[in-house]
Amino acid sequence: MSNPITSIKLVLLGEAAVGKSSIVLRFVSNDFSENKEPTIGAAFLTQRVNINDHTVKFEIWDTAGQERFASLAPMYYRNAQAALVVYDVTKPQSFIKARHWVKELHEQASKNIIIALVGNKIDILEDNENERKVAREEAEKLAEEEGLLFFETSAKTGTNISEVFLGIGEKIPLKGLEDEHNNNGLNVTEDQRINLANTANASENASACSC
Amino acid sequence: MLSPERRTSMAERRPSFANFSGNSNHIDTLMVPHLAGIEDPLPETTPEKVDVLIAGTGLVESVLAAALAWQGSNVLHVDSNDYYGDSAATLTVDQIKNWVNRIHNSKNESEPYKNAKLYISSSNIGPDCKYASRDFGIDLSPKILFAKSDLLSILVKSRVHQYLEFQSLSTFHTYENDSFEKLTNTKQDIFTDQNLTLMTKRNLMKFLKFVLNWEKMPEIWQPYADKSITDFLFNKFKLEKPQVFELVFSIGLCSNMDTKVPLALNRIRRYLVSYDVYGPFPVLYSKYGGAGEVSQGFCRSAAVAGATYKLNEKLYSYNPTTQVATFTDGSKVTVTEKIIMSPTQAPEGNKHVPEQKYEVNRMVCLVEKDCKEWFSEDESAAVVVFPPGSLKSGNKHVVQTLIMGSGSECCPQGTSIWYLSTTESGVRAEMDLDAALEALEISIIRESSEEITNDNDIVQISDDGRPIINSVRLGQSFKEYVPRESVQHLMKLSYTQLTSTPPFDVVNPALFDNDELNNRANSVNKFIPNASDNGIIYTAMPSSEISYDEVVTAAKVLYEKIVGSDDDFFDVDFEDDDNDAMPTGASVNGVINYENAIEDDEEDIQMGEDDSNEFVGEMEI
């Protein structure tokens, strides 16, 4: 309860059908086979993870299909602290697209965004290694050049999924530590933000003031 | 609506709902939001057939798209621009450049923008300069959000507010006699304002009590129903000019002296009831760009509910007989119900765009001044109103100004954006805007100048020894002050936007009656041979209204036209998600509680009755 909570906006990018949503669903529900129903109307999916003494709350934004016709809004990238750029290890085209998204993120997103490059669907390789069309070395090279985290995953079996999010969580500057370092800029911004879903406090104050 | 049967909503189509209704073996997975559709990747082509095609991603269109998508309509939402927002877009400096070029080259006879003029300081903005183009987010239709308003309810209900960040705006300045008077808008301010006489204070309190429930007291306002609000306040409430101007132009944000009593009373109340809903301020604005962000948020919500989005897509023509819409890139879609389109998106050869007879004249300046002198502490925005007759130009209409500082994340530190607008037209509008700009420049130079704080005349000391620094210091004593520095303009843009909506009014439903083709027998006249836009319903361009108030009204009217009733407009039963339950305090049901707008005094004030001095005494804080 007393754990400081750090909220992280995480966005998903990648070609259609590479398994972006599956990765998130696996992470959020931790169960691929059971068709867990996502929250209807959720602005984004959330999942809390404990890292050492800290709780990291991931706010995960799906593209909602808006990437299909190059129609992602600037709002999507804005203030994202982390991004998953996903490709399918059996589809070379999806890796080309991943390079494009990494470039796009460097141009559009905040400078210190943490990007994880994720090659998904490695479960297919278990039966037949010939299905692999994107060499691990090639992806590692891209990750090294661009300063990305790199994972190969299977949303279907769950392989490496939680590692992706833990890896990101560990690289995120945590809130408690920031406070100690007296990072004022960020805190002030947080305070000025008004939660529209919370009018209770203001009303109470108003009625308490019997002037 | 062609089919009289109501579509099942998103919530009803949830698998659990289907199970519940004993229909478990048929689950339409395509209708479940994408996160659920893990085995059903979205198609790579646009749909062949949709219920509704919406063109233009402005505010009204975006709210409508989200409402329809959650209601269960199959929506294709396109925009001919390569960005979201259309007439409500938030643009970078480079995008503004392209936008101005587009207007100059427009062949659209019904082009709703004209007279666009742009100056950019190329030594300051651009590659390798101090500022980059994308450091700025410039709104084509700057807006503020009242804390009690229909859009705010919809933002909360739809959860679109979770995509946005809102900040408070509490400072409203009224420009009078060459100075900015900070608004006396709270009871506390009224009591402590030493410039007000007891009589004025009393009259003001009477009016504030009345206005919160004005409809219930027709005996007071009915005799003035056709009169102007200024007339009413002067004669019925015996208020003096400064208070009348504050009430009408800063609190009510009315456009001129002649605003009719009922309309003006509603506008004044809107401000008062919004106070203290979220804190001691009446309005909010969204960070990173106002209307542009809000429309992106609703578009995202619509996409989550299954709407398809495509930018850079322009309609070529629509054939209402075959129901086929053709785009300029050759792609086609069958639209089974309605096409809703912003006038900005009208195809060439259009004949149905409603007459846009009202002008909104706007000026936007990027200024190398942080303007923090105009903001309240910890805030980053302010409204400055120039009432009629307050400017050198002898303005007949109000000039409204919205100032955004770097805390809004719309501009870099040390700069600000000034949005000026007027409902005056033609050359007079230009003169008024220029005069207002000059007044702003002179004021900010005075205020930000170092020497001023040393002047004893300016810093007043209160009873408890605290210096009161307020805008009064901008007054007479500085009339002769000659500015030594000038304000550095990084960009200056002015343009005229046309609209079919009268100034500060909401859209007239009759505007949307261009769809009689479903009923062609009655309205042969409506069908114009060779028109590319027969059967298309046009939305209204934004009016000069600085709040979002017109948006939901217009979206609801259109929604009703398509669905048949507005009963289920955003009637979405969202599950609780994380800890973000529905708020209990927000007026999500449209039931507005005016109680805490101004805290009640014990006694009721009888209008017209001669109150004793006791009343004034009890108002002590």
Strand content of chain A: 15-25%
| Separation of the first and last Cα atoms of chain A | 38 Å
Assembly status: heterodimer
CATH architecture of the domain at 38-109 and 149-165 and 287-355 and 503-578 in chain B: 3-Layer(bba) Sandwich
Structural class designation of chain B: alpha+beta
State the CATH superfamily name of the domain at 38-109 and 149-165 and 287-355 and 503-578 in chain B.
Answer: FAD/NAD(P)-binding domain
* Range of helix content of chain B: 25-40%
**Rg calculated over all Cα atoms of chain A:** 19 Å
Gross morphology of chain A: globular
Mean pLDDT of chain A, to the nearest integer, reads: 78
SS field, number of helical segments of chain B: 14
How do the helices and strands follow one another from N- to C-terminus of chain A? EHEEHEHEHHEHHHH
InterPro entries (chain A): P-loop_NTPase, Small_GTP-bd, Small_GTPase
Pfam families (chain A): Ras
Keywords (chain A): Nucleotide-binding
GO molecular function, one term (chain A): GTP binding
Task: Set down the secondary structure blueprint.
The complex is a heterodimer of chains A (211) and B (621).
Chain A: E1 5-14, H1 20-29, E2 45-51, E3 54-61, H2 74-77, E4 82-88, H3 92-108, E5 114-120, H4 123-127, H5 136-146, E6 149-152, H6 161-171, H7 175-180, H8 184-192, H9 200-208
Parallel strand pairs in A: 1-3, 1-4, 4-5, 5-6
Antiparallel strand pairs in A: 2-3
Chain B: H1 15-20, E1 49-55, H2 59-71, E2 75-78, E3 90-91, H3 93-105, E4 113-120, E5 138-139, E6 145-146, H4 150-157, E7 166-169, E8 172-176, E9 179-182, H5 187-192, H6 198-212, H7 218-221, H8 229-235, H9 241-251, H10 261-274, E10 283-286, H11 290-304, E11 308-310, E12 315-319, E13 324-327, E14 332-341, E15 358-367, E16 381-386, E17 399-405, E18 416-422, H12 426-448, E19 460-461, E20 467-468, E21 489-499, E22 536-538, H13 549-563, H14 613-618
Helix pairs in contact in B: 2-11, 2-13, 8-9
